[in-house]
Amino acid sequence: MMTAAQLAAVESPDEQQAFDALIAAEQRIEPRDWMPDAYRRTLIRQISQHAHSEIIGMQPEGNWITRAPSLKRKAILMAKVQDEAGHGLYLYSAAQTLGITRDEMTQQLIDGKAKYSSIFNYPTPTWADMGAIGWLVDGAAICNQVPLCRASYGPYGRAMVRICKEESFHQRQGFEILLTLMQGTEAQRDMAQDAVNRWYWPSLMMFGPPDDESPNSAQSMAWKIKRFSNDELRQRFVGMLVPQAEILGITLPDPELHWDEDHWHTSEIDWTEFHEVLSGRGPMNGTRLQNRRAAHEEGAWVREAAVAYAAKQAKKAEAAA
Ligand SMILES: [Fe+2]
Ligand SMILES: [Fe+2]
Predict the structure, then answer these.
(1) Residue 3 is assigned to a structural domain of this protein
(2) What range does the domain containing 215 cover?
(3) Protein residues near ligand 2, an ion, with CB under 5 A
(4) Does residue 43 lie in a domain region?
(5) Tell me: the pLDDT tens digits for 129-159?
(6) CATH code, domain with 130
(7) Which ligand sits nearest to residue 56's alpha carbon?
(8) 71 CA to middle of ligand 1, Å?
(9) 8, part of any domain
(10) CA-to-CA distance for 34 and 224, rounded, in angstroms?
(11) Measured in angstroms, how far is the CA atom of residue 1 from the centroid of ligand 2?
């Protein structure tokens, strides 16, 4: 039985029923469909955070474009960073179908009110970081995002299909950078190992807090936005890394890591670090936002010119008609 308050909250039981039926039948919710407010809010938060992560994520790697060790590496890295910009654009567009504007989302980001993935608040001091990011960060992104291709909200799921294809390329290029370094000199092998040591734990944290501390997960799973729990996805990721680390000849920096009957046993993750970085006290939080803000301000003339050009074209079309 519903309480009176709950009944009042369901303004239109028919619409709620239609929504529930679509979700139960594994059908997609489209922008034209009625949806509960909480579903809409959850998606706006998740998709916009995802878009911000793609855009902020361009910075740690953009840092190495001018210093890539060869023309070929430079071309690949540029393409990769450009892909991330594209991911941001598809995702901002998907979020816009839910009734938030691109300007609002950008403003939330540069005001420091919106979150983005904490992983991008770590520095990239060596070339091997390009390898470790591709292998670990894009690798974790794939594990997270492949199930999102089936997310119940149509525009989000469809954006994820193309994004995942590109992420697979990113992961392979990172792996290949590490493989090349591991076949090089001792200094190069040390550099690769050091980068993996620094990125391994933060990449495990990308899946979010453990299931028993992730209160919103159950609702997202009931809405079929999320398909697997944080810990399930983390397990899958570790299972993917172990054989690849063997091929690379790289040691994953966890002495306790081993297969234990039916799951990967790992050391305790340092969630204090995660929460510190999440709340803005990571090594690069300030720099990342400052760069994004500066890029937005320096790009103001481009936006103004585009608006002026559109107005001019509209006037011309009017005069011709
Ligand atoms: Fe991406
Ligand atoms: Fe990527």
Answers:
(1) no
(2) 13-320
(3) 138, 167, 170
(4) yes
(5) 999 999 999 999 999 999 999 999 999 999 9
(6) 1.20.1260.10
(7) 1
(8) 23
(9) no
(10) 16
(11) 47
